[in-house]
Amino acid sequence: MNLVPFRVIVLHPKALLLEWEQEPSDQLLEKLLGFKRLLQNQDEVTRCTMGYKSLMIHLSEKATSLSKVKALLYKRYNTLEITEFQSGVHWKIPVCYEETHAPDLVTLAQALNKSPEEVIQLHTAATYRVCFIGFLPGFLYLSGLNPELFLARKEKPLLKVPKGAVAIGGKQTGIYPNESPGGWHLIGKTPLSFFDPKKIPPCFAQAGDWISFEPINSKAYLKIQEELISGKFKISPHG
Questions:
Q1: Model pTM?
Q2: What is the CATH number of domain 90-230?
Q3: Of 140, 190, 202, 232, whose CB neighbour count within 10 A is largest?
Q4: Secondary structure letter of residue 149 according to DSSP
Q5: DSSP 8-state assignment for residue 13
Q6: So what's the pLDDT on residue 86?
Q7: Which residues contact 80 (CB under 8 A, 6 or more apart)?
Q8: What is the pLDDT of residues 94-141, one digit of tens each?
Q9: Low-confidence spans in the chain with pLDDT less than 70
Q10: Distances (CA, A) of 222 to 96, 208, 231
Q11: How confident is the model at residue 102, as a pLDDT?
Q12: What is the radius of gyration, based on Cα positions, of the chain?
């Protein structure tokens, strides 16, 4: 194995960024997840967060010798055993693709020379991987979008994208966990909540999990919404 598998960048005496040169992939994701779990069990690490091909480590004490820190990190990484594709659970997310919840579906379909039905079929046929959570609390960065659905983000972002909006932007699809500005194309909406600060963890999905979208009609959307309010609806892993 390469003795220098990643770069170590000092952002602060108590914060280090580890960057891998490989392109994002399931194999790299497994390595990042495994290394993150290992680091989080170290007394000197207070927090560890992920990117597509990076980890940020927050230390309890200032790093006095970068060379020693690098040597220790490389040693720990090179002894890490990775069992590929064993982490993560599968979540099925109900999405209403009807016009009232999908204001950009028709225009996106036209831009891709497809019908709205074809877009929905392609979007729901794939299984996506949660690479990491960021941008907003509970915003899942997903890999696995069919290349036939790639479309550049809007030139003029919206100031208010509704909570639960399912969207496509560039080579990605995602779900807005709360109302926020956004420049992705809105093709559907889920009644589920992806961030609740009162729960542990606040987001039920985690990096390494799998996501698939299940089309529902507006009647089913309202029913799930009502059951969420009354506490009758509980999401659980699929399979």
A1: 0.83
A2: 2.40.100.10
A3: 140
A4: G
A5: T
A6: 57
A7: 31, 34, 35, 38
A8: 999 999 999 999 999 999 999 999 999 999 999 999 988 877 788 898
A9: 1-3, 82-87, 239
A10: 10, 30, 14
A11: 97
A12: 20
What is the residue extent of each domain of the chain?
7-78, 90-230
Cβ atoms of 88 and 210 closer than 8 Å: yes
Instruction: Say if 7-78 and 90-230 have the same CATH topology.
Output: no
pLDDT in the model for residue 136: 76
Structure tokens at 92: 């099925």
Secondary structure class of 171 (helix, strand, coil): coil
Q: Which residues contact 166 (CB under 8 A, 6 or more apart)?
A: 93, 95, 173, 174, 175, 186, 187, 188, 189, 190, 213
| Residues listed for the chain | 239
Structure tokens at 112: 């891709």
Domain at 7-78: CATH code: 3.30.1360.40
Torsion of CA 33, 38, 41, 45, to 10 degrees: -80
Residue type, 175: I
The token pair that represents 65 in the structure block: 């010798």
CB count in 10 Å sphere of residue 137: 14
β-pairing verdict for 180-182 and 54-59: unpaired
Half-sphere exposure of residue 161: CA atoms within 13 angstroms, side-chain side: 29
